[in-house]
Design brief:
The chain is of the alpha/beta class. The protein is built from six helices and five strands, in the order βαβαβαβαβαα.
């Protein structure tokens, strides 16, 4: 079974990695789909995000990283995938993802969505928290991997 794990990954966090690694153990093929959203101000460019993800996932031979724009359902159909994987940290995440799932299903009834609960160690982790902590020069090692932390420090010109 081929699944899609979509997101903006700005930056990729330990929580994202937790879901990707677990999905790679459950499914034959996982496509990590990096959303290109020109409307949203991003810290990292799409090529930077893809590079970070590829650095972190090189050992996972059933995981590929691709960019996409437009409707997720179109990307899923073009990839001939069976489902979308979503990480759930909180009840609020579930409510939001459930609404998206219902919308996506109305656009393409052939697409299933699979919710994976994020490991409790990463329930507090988000890209926006990583960006904010890094912007003040804080320690982001619990939120992101060292290579991502290094890139965050470079973006904010922090040497700590």
């Amino acid at each position: 079974m081929k699944v899609i794990f979509p997101g903006s990954f700005d930056p990729v966090t330990r929580g994202h990695l937790n879901i990707i690694v677990r999905a790679s153990a459950l499914f034959d093929e996982v496509v990590v789909a990096v959303l290109v959203n020109q409307e949203k101000r991003q810290l990292f460019s799409t090529p930077e995000k893809i590079e970070m993800l590829n650095e972190l996932l090189y050992d996972y031979h059933n995981v590929t990283v691709k960019e996409f724009s437009g409707l997720l359902v179109d990307f899923v159909q073009n990839e001939k995938a069976n489902a979308v994987v979503r990480g759930i940290r909180t009840a609020a995440d579930f409510d939001y993802e459930r609404q998206l799932s219902l919308l996506n299903h109305s656009l393409y009834s052939g697409m299933e969505e699979i919710f994976l609960l994020t490991d409790a160690h990463y329930a507090h982790v988000s890209s926006s928290f990583a960006r904010e902590v890094a912007s003040f020069g804080g320690d982001v090692s619990g939120l992101v991997t060292e290579n991502v932390a290094r890139r965050l420090r470079a973006k904010f010109n922090k040497t700590s």
